Amino acid sequence: MRTSVIGIGLVALTVGVAAQAAGQGLIFDARRIGMGGLTLGRSASLVRYNPAYRAVPEAADRRGRPRLTIPIPLGIIQFLHDHPHLSTDPAFHPDSAGFNPILAVNTLLNLPIFLEVKRAPTPTNDVVFGIGKDSLRVNLGEAAKLVPEDQFGFGGSSRLLDPGLSIKGVRVGVVGWLHYDIGVQLNDQLLGFLRDSVQALPRTGYGVLGDGIAEGGFAPTVSYAGRVAGDSSTGVYVGGALHYYLGVAYIRSSISAGFRTGDSIFTGPNPVTPLDSGLTSYSRPGNALGHGVGGDVGVAWISGPIELGIGVNDIGATLTWSDTRQDSVFYRDSSFSKPVANHVSTTTKLPVSYVANVTYTVGKTTLGADVLNAGRGATVHVGGEQRIGLIALRGGVARDQRKRIEFGFGGGVRLGPFGLDVGFWTHTNSLSNERGVTMATSFSLY
Amino acid sequence: MRATWLWMTVLAGLAAACGEGHAIFNVDVYSFIKGTGDDSIPYFVPPGPPDSASSTPRRIDLPGAGSSIVDSVVVNGKVNFDNQAGAGTIGLQLYLDSTAAGTMNASALALTVPDANVSGNVPTPDTIIGRLSSNVISLLAGKQVWIRFQAKGSNSGVVLLQGSAVLKGLRLTVVMNDKFF
Which ipTM was obtained for this model? Predict the structure, then answer.
């Protein structure tokens, strides 16, 4: 019971900040972190989102790009040093008197892979509750700024595997795909209560509206990528893919949950009554597969020091699920689920995702920028690298899905086939109004 | 029970948000008593030894603060001694306990308002201010607390001292080291 209370009580703050974490993404390369998240060269995201890049030749020697990067997880060492007995550490056990929800949430939001050189300070202001017979008001102080005003959540689409055979630019394969999206929004009453210190009112509903979807499957795919003009130093490359999506399972839920105050806030037989209502649709594995058709297109232009690309994925990807069950979820003393319909047809739509990138290389200087939208807002990265002999200096700026600006800087040294890189990156993933700074380290083989 | 947990759910999130800060509860006790009749305590003190009169205990509902440690509780409020006849002194005592019957025990004494001089048919306003006894402040971390007022008086004259102690406001400021889990 205690665990569930903690889980529900922290969900808004956790998911709200998780959206930022998702926006910045998990990056294990200190070089990339030093450039504010920018990727130079044939990164996985370029090939993933721009099918034309399958045909663009690798240029491993360009821009000092390593063949293999191995992260050095100093953060794990630091974490294990601070918490040597993790399985019994009271700070992570809700049943313990020493449980620290702030630490638990921040650890989840900032996986301790790299060293945290500046922890984002948690607001430590006093919280003031005003309580009367028929009134409740809360002033969270600075911490109120952590309460998200808009819809928050995270999501995107992934391609888990992509085996196939290529002959002269034509490729036949099977793509494993996954789409997930979770969005939560506080209703006006709860938002006002938490953020603006508005007094709680009798006979009023306080709650959150949540929408979520998760679906996955595989897609037999035929694609083409090739150079349509120019040569290997200057050329235009195009790519396209046609997918026949086969959905294995999906679940979509739209729920309003919270509570309604009674005739008075603190007195009366029912001071508050839980509210929970919604509709859940799902097709289990083993049911009829979902079916749909969609495609990807992309183009890349390479001209000496300049490289431009744009790719769009999952165009028109709407799946029809012919064997869907729909349940109504509601609360009557406890939560219930009641079938509404079964074996009905429903549709889902994969989000259109896109990437656009530009890179300019002159001498030992490389500058670049990219915009990536994987279905839930665009992230922007702008950065560069300057190589001076054995040393490389890097810097960059990023804007995450929530339009927060982050900064990266770093450097590296290369000795023959080996390189050691360090990168610093600000982040706003913690339960805090201020930025933290992460130091990433990685080892590279050239 | 479930309703209480729902409030706790909200409070858990709020406590998490404030990190290592204090949780301060401003409890308007008067709002729970106003209009119930218990905000007025008639007193009749004949000449002779001191006497007292009591209100019936009232329950104050609180959100509950788990295992939080109550640092301090400051009381402030106003009371009018609406004296009707006689002359003497009237004071007010506040008792807190987790049960109604418990407020009758001497150990439940939480605050004593110093005596005020009263005489004739003249109302005497007085201020309630002080810190609750450390013996009882932990009760404020619970989900409810019972409160009782007692007027005590002494009659220095020769006629019956009578009137009413009328509460005009009472607020508790409870400062906690929050530990809601």
Answer: 0.76
